[in-house]
Amino acid sequence: MTTKIYNVPDISCGHCTATIERELKLVDGLDSVTAELDTKQVTVEVQSDDVLVDVEKMLEEIGYPAA
User: Fold this and answer.
1) pTM score > 0.90 for this model?
2) DSSP conformation letters of the chain
3) Tens-place pLDDT, residues 5-16
4) Can you tell me the distance from the alpha carbon of 61 to that of 9, in angstroms, rounded to the nearest whole number?
5) Could you count the other beta carbons within 10 Å of the beta carbon of residue 65?
């Protein structure tokens, strides 16, 4: 299992964090996701590093690209 923390500067409210968590849960191989408004960070736990590519693509697609 791999843990990765992304800085996502476009997080500005609770709706943002809820959207990110809901959409990232759709990524195959993702075990957990937490989006935090205070730190503007998204923490994911994935089954393998290969899944991180899909996480990053999903963040782009939903309008919250990682910095």
Assistant:
1) yes
2) -EEEEEE-TT--SHHHHHHHHHHHTTSTTEEEEEEETTTTEEEEEESSTHHHHHHHHHHHHTT----
3) 999 999 999 999
4) 15
5) 14
